[in-house]
Amino acid sequence: MKKIKIGSFVVASIIIITLFIAITASSDPSMADASKNINEDLENETTKEPQGTISITGTGRIDLRPDLMGIYLKIMTNDIDSAKTAKNEAAKIIDRVINSLKNLGFTEDQMETVSYDIYPKYEWEDNEYGNSQKVFKGYFVEVMMKVEVSDFDKAGTVIDASVDAGALIDRIDFELTFDKRNEVKIDVLAEAAKDAKLKAKAIVEALGDELGDAKTISSNEYTYNPVTYWKNTYEREFSLDVSTSAPPTTILAGDLTITGNVQITFEVW
């Protein structure tokens, strides 16, 4: 049922009373004075202006389970003489990783090359005279791949297959799919708007005034950051033993926290 504002009802009532008094005013002078007073009240009612505005920031927060796991793989190779040899060796590992994951039922749409770097490496070392000099250590290749896993029970299998194929596990992130992020964005901004109105109403009514309509609204969007469950430290870099570089294969998802903020300016009556 559509709400009828009290102010509108009062104005309508005054108009009806004014018409009644106008009809009877010609026979009763006192009614003419009453009609004049009511007309003045009506004019004041219709010309009433807001006393000012209040600007409030509202915050929304939603905790929810992730619906996507990002397993980031790193392929690292090097060769003292040839960048091409290092690159070819990395390509072989990448092919083995991709084929292993396909055998587990993953498609190439669920795999992504995040970065690919080839570079010469130098280190500072002391020579026989005790002077520091740059020493060439070879050509190095680093490739970062991401595997998207929606069935978290398969995480351990993906980790084992990738490590067996020659990759290292760089990190594991809990994330949200694109559709889920858009769904949550709507909900968290709605919560932020409710929070802003609740704060504004409490402040205005505490001062004896009435909260009016929203005049301006600006959104600072929302904050969403994947949670890193595990990350490799690469303490021994290229001499790293892959058997010690893999995370636990039993993985339990934790909650993600999504926040959003809005700035709203309300009229004050």
Characterization of this structure:
By secondary structure, this protein is of the alpha+beta class. Among the domains are: 1-48; 68-175 and 232-243, Protein of unknown function (DUF541), domain 2 (Alpha-Beta Plaits, 2-Layer Sandwich). It is built from five helices and eight strands; from the N terminus they run H-H-E-E-H-E-E-H-E-H-E-E-E. The protein has helices at residues 6-25, 29-46, 83-103, 155-164, 178-206, and strands at residues 52-64, 68-79, 111-126, 132-149, 168-175, 211-223, 227-231, 256-268. Strand 3 and strand 4 form a beta hairpin.
CATH class of one domain: Alpha Beta
What is the CATH-assigned architecture of one domain? Answer: 2-Layer Sandwich
Mean pLDDT: 83
| Rounded Rg | 35 Å
CATH topology of one domain: Alpha-Beta Plaits
Within the largest sheet, what's the order of strands? 3-4-2-5-7
Please work out how many helical segments DSSP would assign.
Answer: 5
Determine the N-to-C terminus distance: 25 Å
Put the structure in a nutshell.
The chain is 36% helix and 36% strand.
What's the arrangement of secondary structure elements?
Elements (H helix, E strand, L loop, with lengths): L5 H20 L3 H18 L5 E13 L3 E12 L3 H21 L7 E16 L5 E18 L5 H10 L3 E8 L2 H29 L4 E13 L3 E5 L24 E13 L1
Antiparallel strand pairs: 1-8, 2-4, 2-5, 3-4, 5-7, 6-8
Helix pairs in contact: 1-2, 3-4
Which terms would index this structure?
269 residues, alpha+beta, Alpha-Beta Plaits, 5-stranded antiparallel β-sheet, 3-stranded antiparallel β-sheet, 36% strand, disordered N terminus
